[in-house]
Design goal:
single chain, Rossmann fold, 7-stranded mixed β-sheet, alpha/beta, 25% strand, 5 helices
Amino acid sequence: MKNPWLEIPLADYEAHMNLPEIAQAEFLGDVFRDMLKRHSPHSVAILGCAGGNGFEHLSAGAITRVVGVDINPEYIEEARRRFKDPLPGLELFAGNIETDKLPFEPVDLVFAGLVLEYVDVGASLQKIGSMLNPGGVLGTVLQLPHGSAAAVTPSPFSSIQTLSPFIHLVPPGRLKDLAGELDLLEIESRTMELRSGKRFQVQAFRLGGE
C-alpha cells in the first residue's frame, strides 16, 4: 500500500496544521525554536520538514548547516523554492528515514516532531543515530493518547484522514528505552497540552549522554 504522505497535497497539510482548533504548526515551531536556544547547535536536520516547517527560525545566528528531509518529493521542492534564498547552502533530501540512506554529513541537532508515529521506531532510531555528531541531540515530539479525541483530528481537509490507519502512537517510555539501547540518553522530557486538549511529550536525547 502506498504511503499516504505521498498523496496528501502540501496545501491541505499546512492548512490543517494551522487551523486554530489544531494549532500544531505553531506548537512544533515553538518547540523547535526552544531546542535551538537550549542546545545552540551549529548544524541541524529537520525530519518531516514538509514545505519548510521550522526553517523560518534558522535564517540568522550561529547555524552553519541546515538539512531538511521529507518522504514527499513535492514537499521538498516547495521547501527549496521557499528557502533557497534565505538559507543558502540548504541541503534537502526526499526519502524515508526508516529505510533510505540519506547522504548528508552528521549534524549537532536532529528534530523529529510528530514523525515517529508513522515509522518503525527502532529502525528509524538506528538511522537517526548515524545522522548525529558525537554529543549531538535528537529532539522529538510524540502525540499522547486522548480518551475522547481521534489521533488524527477531523478537519475540512479530507486527505488528512487517510493517515488514520497509519498513525501509531509511541509511548514516551518505549522511545526512551529504544534510544538508550543506541547510546541516545534522555536529557529532557516534559508534557505539553494544547488548547484542543491534545497532549504531547517533548523529549531530547544526547548521543553519548551528558
